[in-house]
Amino acid sequence: MEITLRDLVTALHGMGFGALFMLAFSGAIAEMYRMAAPGAPEPGARSRRLLYVYLGVMVILAWATVLSGTYIIYPWYRAVPPAGVTDITLYPKALLLSSPSTAEWHNLGMEWKEHVGWIAPIAMTMVAYIFAKYGRLLARERQVRLAAFVFVVVAFVATAVAGAFGAFLNKYAPIRGGPTITILQGEQ
Amino acid sequence: MTMNTHDTFELTNGPGAAAILSAGLGCFLVGLFFLAEDAVPAAKTFFTFYQPSGALSGTTTMAVALWLIVWFALARAWRGKTVSMPWVNAAAFLLLALSFLLTFPPFIDFLQGK
C-alpha cells in the first residue's frame, strides 16, 4: 500500500482539513441555534465554552484548508511541464487543458474552487467572533443573529462547491509525485 | 453563582456590525480582485506575490489584509455604539452575493464580454 507525498498532502487538504471542516457545520449550526434562539433554555457555561472551542477549531480548519490549498497544492497543480515532456500526467492543469472534454474541469471547476473557497474562512472567523463576543445576548440581537446564520450557510455552500470540485478534479487529474511512502508491504 | 461576562454589561451591536460588514467586504474583495487579475494583465502581474501560486497569492492576501484593516477601523469607530443593523446587513448580504457571483468564472467572462 503506497502513496506519493503529493497524494498524501492533497488528501490532508481535502479530507483532513476540508472534509472535517464541512462535517463540523451541522454540529455548529445546531449548537448556534440552541444558544441564540429566543426562548431557548439558557445554556450553561460549559456548553457555551464548548461552542466557542468548536467554532474556533472550525476557523482553524478553514484557514488550514485554504492556505494548504493555495500555497502547497495549487503550485503542484499548475506547474508547467518542462519543454520536451510528452507525458503530462504529473501536470494536472496541463493535462486537463489538453483536451476539450476535460478543459472545463479547470476553466470552471478549478477557477471557481480556488476563489470561492476563501469565502469560508472569512465568514467563519466572523461567526466565531460574533458568538464569542455576544454569546447568549444573540437571542436579543435578531439582526446580528441573522447575519451570523446567513454567513454560516454561505460558508457551507462555498465549502461544498470547493470540496466537490476538488474531489472531481482529483479524479480526472490527480496530484501525484514526490517521494513514495510505503504504508503497508503486501505479500509477494 | 457563576457570572457570565456577557450578562454583566450591555453590549452594543457596534462591534458585531463591524465584524459583519467587514466580512462581507472581505469576501467581495476576493471576487473583485479575481475579476481584476483576469481582465487586466498588469493586475495579474501585480497580484503575483508568490510565483508558484500565481495571482491567487496576491488577490487573496490583499483581500484578507483589507478585510482585517477595515474590521479594525470599523470596530474602533463603532465601539460602544448602536448602529442600524438592517442597513449593515443589507450591505453585507449584497457584498456576499456579489462575492459569490464574482468568483464564478462564467460570470467573470460575461462581464468581460468573453
Commentary on this structure:
With 188 residues, chain A is mainly α. Chain A has a two-stranded antiparallel sheet with strand order 1-2. The two termini of chain A are 13 Å apart. Chain A has six helices and two strands, in the order βααααααβ. Chain A has one domain (2-182). Chain B has helices at residues 14-39, 41-47, 55-77, 85-102, 105-111. Helices cover 71% and strands 0% of the residues of chain B. The model of chain B is unreliable at 1-9 (pLDDT under 50). Chains A and B meet through helix 2, helix 4, helix 5 and helix 6 of A and helix 1, helix 3 and helix 4 of B.
Set down the secondary structure blueprint.
The complex is a heterodimer of chains A (188) and B (114).
Chain A: E1 2-4, H1 5-36, H2 45-78, H3 92-97, H4 100-116, H5 119-134, H6 142-172, E2 180-182
Antiparallel strand pairs in A: 1-2
Chain B: H1 14-39, H2 41-47, H3 55-77, H4 85-102, H5 105-111
Helix pairs in contact in B: 1-2, 1-3, 1-4, 2-3
The percent range for strand residues of chain A is: under 5%
The class by helix and strand makeup of chain A works out as mainly alpha
**Major sheet characteristics of chain B:** none
- Care to count the β-strands of chain B? 0
Give, in spatial order, the strands making up the sheet with the most strands of chain A.
1-2
